[in-house]
Amino acid sequence: MNHRHRKVLHALFSHPVSANIDPKAVQAVFEELGAEIAHTGAGRVGVKLNGHAHAFHDSRHSLSKDEVVAIRNFLAEAGVDPEAYPA
Prior knowledge:
The protein is an alpha+beta fold. It has 3 helices and 3 strands. The protein has a single domain (3-84), classed as Double Stranded RNA Binding Domain (2-Layer Sandwich), CATH 3.30.160.
């Protein structure tokens, strides 16, 4: 995982919750982690990672804090630990 992806991953898990994360960067992190990504229509993106699936809003703007928390929870459920990828 390159430095840019690690930086985004750590931003997703940072406290306080960041509301300035680019959704395209998050999708790149998902792909780097080996996730399957599908645009499901109706403005949603389906993500499957380590046996877990979730659909997120397909945004063109920075993610809201609620979306960041939802992504953080999804990654934690899928067993992704940001500490395994040192910044």
